[in-house]
């Protein structure tokens, strides 16, 4: 992870009047270096040894600040906990129905679909979200092992 991405994010926060605290910096750095899509609880657990006085509420509050500043997006996929993604480029997600793993993938933007939806319905389209569900490789292997053992 290059420091320049973190530095750009810090500068973006400063322009919105957000003061940079050590906890805030650690949460931001974790998000920007995370390859997954962590929950607030995941972030809290990863940082609690370094910041024993930090609460889960602190993590949530900072995630809200980052979201309002356009540094992260909140992903809600029907389960109880939101996940956070610092990849702000247009991309889509595939989600494992068994373990909840979320993987980014690139695909040409569906702008034409948005335009057609607006034309057909008269809606002013603001954005779209595409989710693909399935079973990740690890869960496929586990499932096959379970099926083999029941025979």
Automatic annotation (TrEMBL):
<dbReference type="GO" id="GO:1900376">
    <property type="term" value="P:regulation of secondary metabolite biosynthetic process"/>
</dbReference>
<feature type="binding site">
    <location>
        <position position="136"/>
    </location>
    <ligand>
        <name>Zn(2+)</name>
    </ligand>
</feature>
<dbReference type="InterPro" id="IPR036390">
    <property type="entry name" value="WH_DNA-bd_sf"/>
</dbReference>
<feature type="binding site">
    <location>
        <position position="139"/>
    </location>
    <ligand>
        <name>Zn(2+)</name>
    </ligand>
</feature>
<keyword id="KW-0408">Iron</keyword>
<protein>
    <submittedName>
        <fullName>Fur family peroxide stress response transcriptional regulator</fullName>
    </submittedName>
</protein>
<dbReference type="InterPro" id="IPR002481">
    <property type="entry name" value="FUR"/>
</dbReference>
<dbReference type="GO" id="GO:0005737">
    <property type="term" value="C:cytoplasm"/>
</dbReference>
<dbReference type="InterPro" id="IPR036388">
    <property type="entry name" value="WH-like_DNA-bd_sf"/>
</dbReference>
<dbReference type="Pfam" id="PF01475">
    <property type="entry name" value="FUR"/>
</dbReference>
<keyword id="KW-0464">Manganese</keyword>
<dbReference type="GO" id="GO:0000976">
    <property type="term" value="F:transcription cis-regulatory region binding"/>
</dbReference>
<keyword id="KW-0804">Transcription</keyword>
<keyword id="KW-0805">Transcription regulation</keyword>
<keyword id="KW-0678">Repressor</keyword>
<keyword id="KW-0479">Metal-binding</keyword>
<feature type="binding site">
    <location>
        <position position="96"/>
    </location>
    <ligand>
        <name>Zn(2+)</name>
    </ligand>
</feature>
<comment type="similarity">
    <text>Belongs to the Fur family.</text>
</comment>
<keyword id="KW-0862">Zinc</keyword>
<dbReference type="GO" id="GO:0045892">
    <property type="term" value="P:negative regulation of DNA-templated transcription"/>
</dbReference>
<keyword id="KW-0238">DNA-binding</keyword>
<dbReference type="GO" id="GO:0003700">
    <property type="term" value="F:DNA-binding transcription factor activity"/>
</dbReference>
<feature type="binding site">
    <location>
        <position position="99"/>
    </location>
    <ligand>
        <name>Zn(2+)</name>
    </ligand>
</feature>
<dbReference type="InterPro" id="IPR043135">
    <property type="entry name" value="Fur_C"/>
</dbReference>
<dbReference type="GO" id="GO:0008270">
    <property type="term" value="F:zinc ion binding"/>
</dbReference>
<keyword id="KW-0963">Cytoplasm</keyword>
<feature type="binding site">
    <location>
        <position position="128"/>
    </location>
    <ligand>
        <name>Fe cation</name>
    </ligand>
</feature>
<comment type="function">
    <text>Manganese-dependent repressor that controls a regulon of oxidative stress resistance and iron-storage proteins. May act as a hydrogen peroxide and organic hydroperoxide sensor.</text>
</comment>
């Amino acid at each position: 992870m290059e420091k320049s991405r973190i530095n750009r994010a810090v500068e973006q926060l400063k322009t919105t009047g957000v003061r940079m605290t050590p906890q805030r910096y650690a949460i931001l750095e974790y998000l920007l270096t995370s390859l997954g899509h962590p929950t607030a609880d995941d972030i809290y657990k990863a940082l609690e040894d370094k910041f024993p006085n930090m609460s889960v509420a602190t993590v949530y509050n900072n995630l809200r600040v980052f979201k309002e500043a356009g540094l992260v997006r909140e992903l809600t996929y029907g389960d109880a906990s939101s996940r956070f993604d610092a990849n702000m480029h247009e991309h889509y997600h595939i989600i494992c129905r068994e373990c909840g793993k979320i993987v980014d993938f690139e695909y040409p933007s569906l702008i034409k679909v948005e335009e057609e939806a607006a034309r057909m319905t008269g809606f002013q389209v603001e954005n779209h979200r595409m989710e693909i569900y399935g079973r990740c490789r690890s869960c496929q292997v586990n499932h096959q092992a379970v099926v083999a053992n029941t025979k």
